[in-house]
Design a protein that fits this description.
Layout (H helix, E strand, L loop, with lengths): L1 E8 L2 H5 L4 H22 L2 E6 L2 E6 L7 H20 L11 E8 L2 E5 L5 E5 L1 H11 L6 E4 H8 L7 E5 L9 E3 L3 E3 L1 E7 H19 L16 E6 L2 E6 L11 H11 L26
Parallel strand pairs: 4-7
Antiparallel strand pairs: 1-3, 1-4, 2-3, 5-6, 7-11, 8-11, 9-10, 12-13
Helix pairs in contact: 2-3, 3-5
Amino acid sequence: MVTIFFSDIIGFTSMVGEMTPIQVMKMLNELYTIFDALVEKHGVYKVETIGDAYMVLGGAPDLCPASEGAEKVAKFALAALDAVSNFRREDGTTVLIRIGLASGPVVAGVIGRNMPRYDLFGDTVNFASRMESTSKSMRIQIAEPTYFLLKNAQGNSLFNMSMRLGDDGLPGIQVKGKGRVTTYWIHGMQGEAFQTCFSVASSAEMMARGGSWPASVEPPADVPSISGVTSAGVRSVSGVSASEFPALREETVEVVVASSGFPPPSASPPDNTPPPSSASPPDSTP
């Protein structure tokens, strides 16, 4: 089983209509030279570029466990997204991409004699392409098999992921040739993007105990409300907006509460009042 990465540049057709051929080549060369360096860094395989699309493979041709291949591709995807966020065109404008990942079986090999190259065939290739085309600007959408591989990755890499909701508010989206399928977003590594959840959850717990929202912690616009504060601490982040900021899942909530430094809301605050003296006051009556 392999994991396949697809990305493309949003609005590329209209963008190049305002550029000279040399400018187009220069922009793609500069951006994808950065991607090529990230391919080497993360140990994945660059399959090809097709116009503005970039295709990467993990788990072949250098064989490795499926979860390891998925982890490498996911790390590459995050690094590529970060690189694009810092990339500027010649005129100083930004470039936006969308990314899709899918995992599954493929048939791979070298085709032909003239200009031979390593190529992939199978439904997984088409599914990865659909994950990219149905993704959103500067987001990484992954298929459900990829999600489970990343959950079981052996490299101690904890990815911050959340289920994608459709326009009807229910899990899953419509994918051509597949019907409604469950997909997920990768938001970052657990130690990075999860920090926002930690700050919000800790501040919410402080409020539940009668305190005030700290000025140093600004609640993200993606999280309009926080609810479900119980004796175990903050249980959930609710009111997720269209941008789908990841809700705190059951298995991560305990980490937040344990790391926040706050006692459960049911615990009574320490009483700092000095204990009454048992000795009787001196009698000053004349």
